[in-house]
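User: Hi! I have a protein structure encoded as tokens and I'd like to know what sequence might fold into it. I'm fairly new to this, so please keep things simple.
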């Protein structure tokens, strides 16, 4: 224990109070003990320190900061060093704004393309996610403050995110949903980790001993602080006992009394409190000292330039028929699409940055070298048909050598708190594309979106550029790529399916019940498409260049891969070499191949380089549920070197010694998991893999019932609350502007009323609401009133005791 002497000077009351927030984004301070308050701030792609009234959804304004490209974009660079550079810049801005903990990066595995928060996450592959996130963490913490990788763990949808139960088998949990976090913890040593809202196999992540104690702290050696997601605490005492350090945002006196009572009754011990307090004090004292020493300024122009360079390096060229791109100087172009004038450059919700400035394509055209004939918005951003705008755009396109269309998803399509309803770009944008291509076959489409989309319209353009979400300087980056000032080198960090119907989790994503069954197991993303033989529109790891590359001289061992890469084209460029490991004769079922290494190689035209890529302890392992350990199946493995998961250029075979563990599936029939065809796994087979019965999925009337589930209650008053929220939400959808605040409330469990109201509502009051919902009308309301008075009195007494302590 690092702070034993200081902790011994504190009363139990003081210690318990310190383990929950004082305000929405700050911890408590005890001046007499020399313990300062610190500020935590959202920040996966830039600092969002709120000015004035604070909220956790990004609805209120924040202090201006650089908006860097979100993780979805930078993941396509496949360059952890770039992530580290971005992290360092974000950390500088955080420290300059006196922020001690930057809440990011997000690295949840992209299980479904419809997750509304996918723009905040890196990849469908945990190895790529982990390596990229580790770069960010190293960069952020180089300033002495703390990064906070999130959301730990198995948090892959927004619907009912605070009350859903992620039901997942242990092998899938370890291999797909925890490996990225493991890489971050072991390679970047974050000072904090944020627990997720959801339950995992029946236990909330924030009080899950298996997750926080067995895996995070024991297996991985994490010794930092765990902070709840905002309002993500269910049982604060169990959280403290099982490894959760700090409850946020500001639950008030009720949370303090909960811990005091838990110690007094023996539910937890004072040593549990002391262990968490020691972690918190290390975080507070170390990061506060770093912030105090740091400059209060940063080079905003340098950071803006970094955004442009990073966005350009991450842009993916998906199609380039007849080498239409790059556009030569003087090319007569028609610029079409609302996004060229009003860019889509970040996601919505808690990650939304109040950008210092935002470049647009129109503003940057003068420096592009292109001869711009004009601009036409072409379509209504909200999807409404507009024949006048379309006709104007078509007339402009008819005059040009090349028509460049800027299409994408609008702000409401991608947001925290709201999953996407489909993978489509709005119909009016596609109708515009068809009309433009009919008069000008030299059509280039630039897509701005934070997630994969369906592309049945691909034949209507000669070139397709995926700009993702480029941050505040992303517009200039797109023009740099279109004109060849930058040779595109990005590659997809997630598979683009032909259609949503082809995605493996579609039957069990964001369903009606409380449980979310991860019935597809290991087969997420390319692991599914390649094993099951389902063709995607664009495969994982795919991306074109204005030059070409050749691979040769492969040498492989069980520890490393070396090869020569040559730029065989006429311009400088960069290639992302990807290493996949396969075991065609595997006895233990597995995906047909898995990413186990990569390297981004920059090469001048005609240049060759020898590239060495290590194979680490994750290259051949699998989680054995019989031995409850990582094991290796011995024998021959294929090392496949490719430009994408489908473009394998070189292969080699290596012999790997096994650990001699028994096959956990010997004698068990798992045909769907052995073939990878997991679209329709029957209940019986799923239960065998899960190793327990499928959990019950019925709504229960308890403190974890969401406000949106109050229609299942037995109270007219609760029905009225549900009806009001449902009506407000439905009306906002009809207007094309979903109300994110109402959406959050609709999916919020009753217990969160006590966690998100700064102590105004207690758990005793929530218990009264539950009684009301169960049909004990008068008793429930009376309990709410009595507990409200009691809470107000106890809160006042508690604060007085803390001030006098």
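Assistant: Happy to help. Inverse folding works backwards from shape to sequence: for each of the 805 positions I chose a residue that suits the local structure. Here it is:
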């Amino acid at each position: 224990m690092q702070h034993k002497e200081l902790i011994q000077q504190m009363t139990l009351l003081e210690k318990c109070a310190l383990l929950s927030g004082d305000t929405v984004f700050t911890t408590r301070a005890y001046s007499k003990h020399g313990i300062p308050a610190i500020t935590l701030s959202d920040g996966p792609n830039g600092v969002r320190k709120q000015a004035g009234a604070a909220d956790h959804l990004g609805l209120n304004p924040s202090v201006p900061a650089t908006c860097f490209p979100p993780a979805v974009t930078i993941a396509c660079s496949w360059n952890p060093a770039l992530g580290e550079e971005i992290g360092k810049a974000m950390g500088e801005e955080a420290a300059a704004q006196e922020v001690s903990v930057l809440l990011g990066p997000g690295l949840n595995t992209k299980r479904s393309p419809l997750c509304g928060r996918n723009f905040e996450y890196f990849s469908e592959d945990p190895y790529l996610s982990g390596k990229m996130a580790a770069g960010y963490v190293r960069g952020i913490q180089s300033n002495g403050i703390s990064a906070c990788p999130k959301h730990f763990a198995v948090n892959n949808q927004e619907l009912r995110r605070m009350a859903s139960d992620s039901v997942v088998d242990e092998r899938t949990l370890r291999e797909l949903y925890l490996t990225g976090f493991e890489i971050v913890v072991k390679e970047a040593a974050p000072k904090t980790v944020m627990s997720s809202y959801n339950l995992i196999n029946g236990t909330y992540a924030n009080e899950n001993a298996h997750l926080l104690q067995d895996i995070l702290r024991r297996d991985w050696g994490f010794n930092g602080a765990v902070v709840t997601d905002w309002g993500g605490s269910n049982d604060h005492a169990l959280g403290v006992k099982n490894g959760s350090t700090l409850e946020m945002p500001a639950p008030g006196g009720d949370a303090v009394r909960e811990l005091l009572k838990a110690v007094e009754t023996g539910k937890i011990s004072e040593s549990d409190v002391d262990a968490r307090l020691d972690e918190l004090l290390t975080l507070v004292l170390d990061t506060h000292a770093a912030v105090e020493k740091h400059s209060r300024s940063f080079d905003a122009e340098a950071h803006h330039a970094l955004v442009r360079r990073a966005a350009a390096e991450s842009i993916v060229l998906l199609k380039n028929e007849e080498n239409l791109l790059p556009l030569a100087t003087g090319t007569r172009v028609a610029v079409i699409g609302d996004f060229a004038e009003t860019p889509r450059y970040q996601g919505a919700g808690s990650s939304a940055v109040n950008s210092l400035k935002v470049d647009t394509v129109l503003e940057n055209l003068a420096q592009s070298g292109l001869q711009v004939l004009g601009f036409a918005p072409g379509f209504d951003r909200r999807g409404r048909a507009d024949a006048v705008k379309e006709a104007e755009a078509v007339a402009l396109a008819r005059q040009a050598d090349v028509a460049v269309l800027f299409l994408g998803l609008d702000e409401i399509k991608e947001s925290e708190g709201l999953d996407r309803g489909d993978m489509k770009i709005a119909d009016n944008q596609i109708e515009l594309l068809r009309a433009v291509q009919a008069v000008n076959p030299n059509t280039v489409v630039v897509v701005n979106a934070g997630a994969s989309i369906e592309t049945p319209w691909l034949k209507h353009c000669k070139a397709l550029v995926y700009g993702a979400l480029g941050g505040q300087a992303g517009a200039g980056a797109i023009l740099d790529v279109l004109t060849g000032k930058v040779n595109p080198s990005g590659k997809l960090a997630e598979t683009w399916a032909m259609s949503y119907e082809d995605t493996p989790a579609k039957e069990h994503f964001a369903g009606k019940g409380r449980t979310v069954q991860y019935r597809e197991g290991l087969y997420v993303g390319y692991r599914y498409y390649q094993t099951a033989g389902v063709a995607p529109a664009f495969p994982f790891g795919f991306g074109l260049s204005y030059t070409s590359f050749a691979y040769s001289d492969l040498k492989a061992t069980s520890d490393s891969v070396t090869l020569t890469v040559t730029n065989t084209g006429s311009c400088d460029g960069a290639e992302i070499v990807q290493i996949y490991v396969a075991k065609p004769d595997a006895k233990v079922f597995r995906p047909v191949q898995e990413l186990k290494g990569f390297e981004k190689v920059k090469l001048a035209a005609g240049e060759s380089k020898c590239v060495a890529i290590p194979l680490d302890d994750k290259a051949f392992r699998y989680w054995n549920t019989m031995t409850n350990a990582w094991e290796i199946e011995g024998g021959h493995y294929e090392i496949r070197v490719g430009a994408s998961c489908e473009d394998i250029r070189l292969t080699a075979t290596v012999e790997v010694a096994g650990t001699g563990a028994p096959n956990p599936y010997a004698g068990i029939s798992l045909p769907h998991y052995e073939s990878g065809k997991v679209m329709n796994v029957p209940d019986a087979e799923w239960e065998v893999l899960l190793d327990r019965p499928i959990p019950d999925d019925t709504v229960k009337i308890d403190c974890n019932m969401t406000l949106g589930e109050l229609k299942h209650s037995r109270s007219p008053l609760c029905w009225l609350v549900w009806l009001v929220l449902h009506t407000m939400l439905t009306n906002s959808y009809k207007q094309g502007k979903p109300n994110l605040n109402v959406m959050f409330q609709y999916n919020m469990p009753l217990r969160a009323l006590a966690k998100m109201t700064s102590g105004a509502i207690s758990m005793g009051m929530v218990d009264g609401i539950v009684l009301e919902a169960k049909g004990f009308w008068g008793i429930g309301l009376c309990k709410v009133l009595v507990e409200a008075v009691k809470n107000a009195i106890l809160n006042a007494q508690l604060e007085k005791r803390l001030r006098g302590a």
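A useful reference point when you look it over: The two ends are 24 Å apart (CA to CA). Feel free to ask if any position seems puzzling.
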